[in-house]
Amino acid sequence: MGCSNLRHEAIKHIATTTYQLNRVDFKTVHLKELFGVNVFSEEVQRARLPKPIFKALQKTIKRGQPLDPTIADAVANAMKDWAMEKGATHFTHQFQPMTGLTAEKHDSFLSPTGTGSAIADFSGKELIKGEPDASSFPSGGIRATFEARGYTAWDPSSPAYIVENPNGATLVIPTAFLSWTGEALDKKTPLLRSIEALSSQALRILHLFGNHDATKVFSTMGPEQEYFLIDKQFFYARPDLLNCGRTLFGAKPPKGQELEDQYFGSIPERVLACMAEGEYEMTKLGVPARTRHNEVAPSQYELAPLFEDSNLATDHQMLTMEILRNTADKYGLACLMHEKPFSGINGSGKHNNWSMATDAGENLLTPGDTPHDNAQFLVFCCTVIRAVNKYAELLRVTVASAANDHRLGANEAPPAIVSIFLGDQLTDVIEQIENGGPKSSKDAGIFETGVSILPKLPKDAGDRNRTSPFAFTGNKFEFRMVGSSQSIAGPNTVLNLIVAESLDYVASKLEAAVKAGIDLNKAIQELLPQIIKENKRIIFNGDNYTEEWHKEAEKRGLANLKNTVDTLPIITRKDTIDLCTKYKVYTERELHSRFHIFSEGYVKTINIEGQLMVYMGGRMIFPASLRYQAEVAAAVNATKAAGVDNAPQLELLKTLTAAIADFQKALANLEKALSHHTEADAYEHAKYMRDMVLPIMAETRNLGDKLETLVADDHWPLPTYREMLFIK
Ligand code: ADP
Ligand code: MG
To answer: If DSSP states are collapsed to H, E and C, what string results for 608-663?
Structure first.
């Protein structure tokens, strides 16, 4: 007696739907002409602004010089005319509050004149500053609701753009979001501060090497986005995916990723069509999408853009996630950005490729061809090694979340222990430096001592290590711990900051030496071995998944912070406060506020998941199990009445009844654990969720999944892993 349920309907619907796939015609719209058409780009600015105003604006954008407020009106006016020609009716200050998402409130360009007509208006004041009612965004105690004012401040270094909608368009202005006391309420403000800190310290090193042409150094970022695409029908039939982004139940499917037949495989037609339209939208917004491919898990994919300066890359990354989600919808797909949508199957990360470059375009982590570049590269490279070793724990905090906890430390993603992979050749060079530089070579006879004659470094690191959390990949570092749903602002803010501190340290030493009359090369030759000696424990080129490494790491004194709750106290530790305030990246109050926000976020996430488990268990799994139990019980009686052996039916009934009883008990436990109110602060509550709620959730899941393997398939209400991952 199969009864109709959402799951069956979903499968039927998918099997019988033809999707409209041809939505973009690249024969008539050429990518090249499409790039940035909806961006208020340098080209548009040049064409539309009076020359002196264009020049002043460019100085702000390129050199970070303060904006001359008198030019704001002219810029705003040009922006408005351009936007309205493109169909915009509204403008919005977009910001990145501590929710980890973007926020926007739209204002119309229209101003009534009071005489029955209206004019289109957008002033410099409106461009520069907005005042959204900010009371409903997380502030971690920085702002009480009675002082709800928050300001959005235009970030001229990230260009305004137009977002199209079937009915009209909106001019979007990237902004920073601050409290009226000037404290950051967002993720962009600290990132911008960290870029400045990095720039001023890196320039000191460049000056030592005689480079006085560079006026700015910025970090470059290329984030590789992993995500899943599954049919929307399944998504709607799974309350857990809809509300939590991950499955809270789901038995292991007979086929998972073990055949390794998915990675780099041919992309399914519907998915490829969806990717292409997403990239089309990204292209219009000047987001440089570059590569796309199938990832390791079934229905998992990846998109990587070309790298950009980290502020722009961060804004573009937020846009990318939004575009992926919206486009998927048009193709009857749901884009899952969660770090671990399916347990037992690979999760998703966001490899954060990071380097430093001058405004002249020189990548400071390129080994280079000449000995001089080589020495400069080694100095920059060693500062990064020192930074990551010294502040490994702080770096770990930036990727901590309830969602990423399912990924880090499991046997797939990088482990929770931060270490650096340098590759054989670079490691060899580093070892040579540590031992005082290479003194001899078989072929070339005697080398002079000195850093500047170290062997030429390979442009390409050659070998790869997929298990390392922080890997040197030829001309950049790849920070692989970042979660797929996370904003990259936090990790990059801290990377910029800790490297700035390291550059400061190195620059101070070298400047002092040079001032004392010591040759720069000699000073470097003395300093680098010491830095390497002090920090080499962070370097590990082996397999990061092994038990031996975990033991070895412990011996080396490297932290293994296994979950979010373990990491959070680092945010308000004295060394963090000293570091952040010294380089003016976070104030002490901002750090305390973030500690509070992250603690609360953790509690809320687990609480929602727990509540949803209770709901799904009680309203979907339990009823289905009871219906099946009644069927089995009827079969027990029917076989008995028929006078045949009913031992198998009875056996099944007993197994089922026991499983149902266990599940019911677990659900009751979970409900009780969730209703327990901790009066203590958010962090204590987070600890409680980790220690008391998560284990019960794990137990409940196991028991629910057991029922999935017992209950008749036609009764089971939830789309299964097998279906969600393989029906395309
Ligand atoms: P892989 O998956 O092999 O690591 P991908 O091509 O998927 O390589 O991604 C590499 C990413 O690194 C791209 O986004 C690329 O633009 C970025 N990248 C390359 N050079 C730099 C650099 N100097 N700074 C930051 N990111 C970079
Ligand atoms: Mg990749």
So the answer is: HHHHHHHHHHHHHHHHHHHHHHHHHHHHHHHHHHCCCCCHHHHHHHHHHHHHHHHH
Taking alpha carbons only, the member of 348, 364, 345 closest to residue 356 is 364
Mean pLDDT computed over 619-630: 97
Instruction: Name the residue type at position 103.
Output: A
Evaluate if pTM is beyond 0.90: yes
| 224 pocket-lining for ligand 1 (C-beta < 6 Å) | yes
Using alpha carbons only, give the angle 597, 599, 600 rounded to the nearest 5 degrees.
65
Q: Using alpha carbons, select from 248, 303, 246 the residue that is nearest to residue 274.
A: 303
> Per-residue pLDDT tens for 642-692?
999 999 999 999 999 999 999 999 999 999 999 987 667 899 999 999 999
| Nearest ligand 1 atom to alpha carbon 305 | 14
Question: For residues 464 and 474, what is the distance between their CA atoms, to the nearest angstrom?
Answer: 10
**For 105-122, how does the pLDDT look when each residue is reduced to its tens digit (9 = 90+)?**
999 999 888 888 888 889
Q: Between 462 and 358, whose confidence is greater?
A: 358
**Which residues sit with Cβ closer than 5 angstroms to ligand 2, an ion?**
224
The rounded Å distance from CA 281 to ligand 2 centre is: 21
Work out the widest C-alpha separation in the chain, in whole angstroms. 105
Residues 6 or more apart in contact with residue 621 via CB below 8 angstroms:
249, 663, 704, 707, 708, 717, 718
Q: Which atom of ligand 1 is nearest to the CA of 306?
A: 16
Residue 688, amino acid: Y
